[in-house]
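re the bet — no i am not wrong, look at it urself. input seq straight from the record:
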Amino acid sequence: MPGLDYVSHEDILPYTSTDQVPIQHELFERFLLYDQTKVPPFVARETLRAWQEKNHPWLELSDVHRETTENIRVTVIPFYMGMREAQNSHVYWWRYCIRLENLDSDVVQLRERHWRIFSLSGTLETVRGRGVVGRVSVTAPVSGPTQQAWGLSACKVTDRSSLCQHIGWFGVRNLRTIL
């Protein structure tokens, strides 16, 4: 859904607002009803419940991973998008929400990203490129229900040399396959 993304609960909860529309999104009022007598004052509408039911398989987070190097915090939230059969094999899909936060007053420019994605079926994929603005990284589907990823993002800090932000190993898995 355009304009919708994931964040870690730690980043937004507890969340309180006195505004009747605290989040600017075209579906906010279709999904939530403001009721000042309730705590919290927002109640899910049937539209939200139906949307959650329909999209529930790829809304489940497997984990949230964080690492901070030289005042640059990286948060990675992977989640399973589903599986389909292709040419007599299973193809598994994940989405990764990656957030880089500058915790310092220096200006930081993201210069490069370098990811290694390993499927437990033995496939190793490398994704590398300059920046991310205006570009979409495309990773191929993998053949196993579990994979591991790790990487680096190279940043340039104003008035200092470049630094490499280590993005530590994180695993993703299809919980329905494992359980």
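see?? The chain has four helices and nine strands. told u. also The chain has two domains: 9-58, 65-178. so pay up
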